[in-house]
Amino acid sequence: DLREAAEIFAESFPAEGDALAHEQRFRDELGRSMARITLARDEQGRLVGVLLAWHVVDEVTLLDVAVRGTRRREGHGRALVEELLAWAKEAGARLCLLEVRTSNTAARSLYATLGFEEVNVRRRYYEDGEDAVEMHATLAHS
Questions:
Q1: Which of 37, 116, 46, 44 is nearest to 83 (CA)?
Q2: What is the pLDDT of residues 60-116, one digit of tens each?
Q3: Phi-psi region at 16: left, alpha or beta (left = phi > 0; alpha = psi -120 to 50)
Q4: C-alpha distance across the termini of the chain, in Å
Q5: What is the DSSP string of 2-54?
Q6: CA atoms within 13 Å, Cβ hemisphere of 138
Q7: Per DSSP, what are the bridge partners of residue 100?
Q8: Residues 84 and 53: beta-carbon distance below 8 Å
Q9: Which bin fits 138, alpha (ψ -120 to 50), beta or left (φ > 0)?
Q10: Hey, which residues are catalytic here?
């Protein structure tokens, strides 16, 4: 799955490197105890999406979520984030954090429907100079 996950990331984040660079990133992440990688598969078992997050103490940071280009807008990204939020709550996290490009209105809208609130703008956050919107979701515990 590593190579295929890396290909999905390379397709979604081409400015961050090719599939080999993303494969090395996944190898590095697999060596971190705080890293969590979640895969989404379609009905035939084919890999269609990947989510990468870190869990540190009582916070989970959603680093990246990527869905194969031909399979976007089918709910795979939503399912990955919902799975992360359920896991984070179960793990005792109180907060889930992320940054998203200001221009990525589709992702911002999705995150908002999942309980994330826009809390800050990080000026010139990305290498190309685009701003990032910080979003937080408070996780209720029973």
A1: 37
A2: 999 999 999 888 888 999 999 999 999 999 999 999 999 999 999 999 999 999 999
A3: alpha
A4: 35
A5: HHHHHHHHHHH-GGG--HHHHHHHHHHHHT-TTEEEEEEE-TTS-EEEEEEEE
A6: 3
A7: 133
A8: yes
A9: beta
A10: 99, 111
